[in-house]
């Protein structure tokens, strides 16, 4: 079975391509390399011992999508492609609506034209807004706080409308919590092109000496140690969640599922974890809260377990070990 993976050269996409190849799927990556890396795909092939096909293209280009779907006879799509920097979405929203919303519509249109009606969509816990209860279940109200989140919710709604109009589609909406870590080989990982805004890549860059210190955004939250708490999930667990979701797309269906661990960890716990994994000092500086941040956010992962027979198996020790292993072996990412 051949899977078209949009955004397959990115962080989560590359880890998922590796799991797909290892499980015997054929893979066609469709990526414009805006934030992806060809070298990541070469390394995926090296680890898997199998090759994949790469189509350089933009998901806003329907002709290119139809060509890729038909040429390689893809039967399902995993759709990662999009922009994800929340701050950029506030200062410059139009590229987000073009890439994430128009791009997704174009992809669905191309799929419909080719009779390919199975898709997994990368959504995010951001669609829950400020948690009204914890752990967050899938029936939590959906509300968003920034344009990035709005694009995710818009695409979710488009997918629900599409299924309502044509129930022969198979649609899996996966809401990721906080993906971190890297493949244990140390060969692939997250390689942000700009200064990271997410916690774990930032801590790893401090540990390896690329940045002088970590700014801790807020130490006065109503949490155990005062710093923000999140549901960090190892990217390999997350990638495997996509294979479980693919298996559930055998028949027409529409589901929305949390992919998280059900546990939350504070900023200070993650700093300690990386300190331990790296044996390096990680200087920190305490700052006031970052606008828009919730104190605590974690998933109820039980629906994923019952529906997909999937659950996360890797803990923060493995997340920190692999985050460090990737960064120390590739201090400048794929340009090392
Ligand atoms: P990433 O930036 O590493 O990967 C995205 C990939 O999509 C890149 O390879 C990029 O080149 C490609 N791309 C972007 N726009 C494209 C376009 N118009 N046409 C073709 N390719 C395009 O991001 P990631 O962390 O791997 O995230 C993957 C998906 O998961 C995104 O949709 C993101 O919004 C979602 N998500 C990520 C997180 C997270 O914390 N990483 C959390 C929740 C949801
Ligand atoms: N933090 C710091 N210093 C930093 C970066 C982060 O103290 O330099 C703190 C934050 O305040 C927060 C925690 O670390 O308490 C995690 O922050 P991240 O930026 O890593 O993650 P968020 O939970 O804020 O957001 C991430 C993605 C969103 C996505 C959300 C839920 O960036 O796109 O997870 O999936 F919507």
- What is the general shape? globular
Which kinds of small molecule does this entry bind, naming each only once?
Answer: nicotinamide-adenine-dinucleotide, uridine-5'-diphosphate-4-deoxy-4-fluoro-alpha-D-galactose
Unreliable residue stretches: none
Tally of DSSP β-strands: 14
Class from secondary-structure proportions: alpha/beta
Would you mind describing this structure in some detail?
- By secondary structure, the chain is α/β, with parallel strands linked by helices.
- The chain has a domain at 2-181 and 232-260: 3-Layer(aba) Sandwich (Rossmann fold), CATH 3.40.50.
- Helices cover 40% and strands 18% of the residues.
- The chain has eleven helices and 14 strands.
- It has helices at residues 11-22, 38-48, 62-71, 86-91, 94-114, 147-165, 199-207, 235-247, 267-278, 302-308, 316-329, and strands spanning 2-6, 26-31, 53-56, 76-79, 118-124, 170-176, 178-180, 214-217, 229-230, 232-234, 253-259, 265-266, 284-287, 296-297.
- The strands form four sheets. It has a seven-stranded parallel sheet, with helices on both faces. Strands 12-9-14 form a three-stranded mixed sheet. A two-stranded parallel ribbon has the order 7-10.
- Helix 6 (147-165) links the parallel strand 5 (118-124) and strand 6.
- It is globular and about 55 Å long.
- The two termini are 34 Å apart.
- Nicotinamide-adenine-dinucleotide binds next to helix 1, helix 5 and strand 5.
